[in-house]
């Protein structure tokens, strides 16, 4: 079996302010997570001959990967966070206040709700297909550093969770989800590196 390690980027400045989307750098605690993650990855993959680190094209994942040395890094646009369209950069409070109909329709059907000029979870699931094909093909371990909505979809695929659960799966910050793909099925471990 070979591990696939899934993690969100370290806490970003927008996470602290409750803003969705955007492309900010990490907060202080996000920076600390990046170092702890590098430590963890180095130890966990020490005995592996090859492995690779996949990030999105957004700063917060690239910066989270930056203290990790010794493995090739690949940026995938398909790993970028769900595109919140006209709501990019807003807080949920602001969406509720300024666009109450949008807020309500999303609440009603979070899986298929598409942000105006943005994406739905179903869109994200679809664009992840090439990433999943490549993850299945790889023989070596992969560390995927991405975003909440994207990791919900990836996790649901490997853990065989139903589509309707995807937008509600818990993928907390500063936690590594390790998936082991063996002949007998999939095993999962979670490592919470900090609060
Ligand atoms: O910025 C987007 C969030 O990571 C996705 O969260 O789909 O629960 O609003 P949500």
UniProtKB/TrEMBL annotation:
Transmembrane segments: none annotated. It comes from the Eukaryota. This is 6-phosphofructo-2-kinase/fructose-2, 6-bisphosphatase-like. It comes from Iris pallida.
């Amino acid at each position: 079996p070979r591990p696939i390690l899934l993690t969100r980027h370290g806490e970003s400045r927008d996470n602290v302010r409750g803003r969705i989307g955007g492309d900010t750098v990490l907060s202080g605690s996000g920076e600390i997570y990046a170092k702890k993650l590098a430590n963890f990855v180095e130890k966990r993959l020490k005995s592996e001959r090859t492995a690779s680190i996949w990030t999105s094209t957004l700063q917060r994942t690239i910066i989270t990967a930056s203290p990790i040395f010794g493995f090739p890094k690949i940026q995938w646009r398909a790993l970028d966070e769900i595109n919140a369209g006209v709501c990019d950069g807003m807080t949920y409070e602001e969406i509720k206040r300024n666009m109450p109909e949008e807020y309500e329709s999303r609440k009603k059907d979070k899986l298929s709700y598409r942000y105006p000029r943005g994406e739905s979870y179903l869109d994200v699931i679809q664009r992840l297909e090439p990433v999943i094909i490549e993850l299945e093909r790889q023989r070596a371990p992969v560390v995927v550093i991405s975003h909440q909505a994207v990791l919900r979809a990836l996790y649901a695929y490997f853990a065989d969770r139903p589509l309707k659960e995807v937008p509600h799966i818990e993928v907390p910050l500063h936690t590594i989800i390790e998936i082991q793909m063996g002949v007998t099925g999939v095993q999962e471990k979670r490592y919470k590196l900090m609060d």
